[in-house]
Amino acid sequence: MSATGQRDTPPELEIRRRLFKKGLRYRVDYPVIAKPRRRGDIVFPRLKLAIFVDGCFWHGCPIHGTWPKSNADFWRKKIETNQARDIDTNERLREQGWLVLRFWEHESPDEVVDRIIDVVEVRKSELARPTDLERERD
Question: C-alpha 99: how far from its chain's center?
């Protein structure tokens, strides 16, 4: 388990490859909150869109997550701490106007990429719309 890195996991790499092929450009392992330090797996900073690809074991997937029998208390606490940090990160980012998307590592990369592209297009169109203040000036 210690061999699993925090970034560049196979599901992340596959999603990033497909996004890049579709012409999207993004930041990888990008700091979205300074303190406490939180980094998005795939981030579109201008669109305030943070994407996380969560590992089934490490984040307690309800479908594939398992609770180890060896050193059970340690692992339960570790996974529950990760889940609490995920919720805290989501809340902090949303308070700052970010949109957070979370995907499980087992989800289809094609479906994940399609969802991300849909959201990126919506966020871009929202940025392109004039604000109420800009409309009043015209």
Answer: 9
Query: Residue 42: in which H helix or E strand, if any?
Result: strand 38-44
Helices 109-128 and 10-21 cross at an angle (nearest 10°) of: 50
Nearest Cα to Cα of residue 39 among 78, 92, 76, 77: 92
Q: Distance (Å, rounded) from C-alpha 81 to C-alpha 78?
A: 5
Task: Give tens-digit pLDDT for 17-59.
Answer: 999 999 999 999 999 999 999 999 999 999 999 999 999 999 9
Amino acid at 58: W
- pLDDT tens-digit readout, 59-118: 999 998 888 889 999 999 999 999 999 999 999 999 999 999 999 999 999 999 999 999
How far is 130 from 138, CA to CA, in rounded Å?
Answer: 10
Question: Is this model's pTM higher than 0.90 or not?
Answer: no
**Where in the chain are the domains?**
59-107
What tokens were used for 11?
A: 């599901």
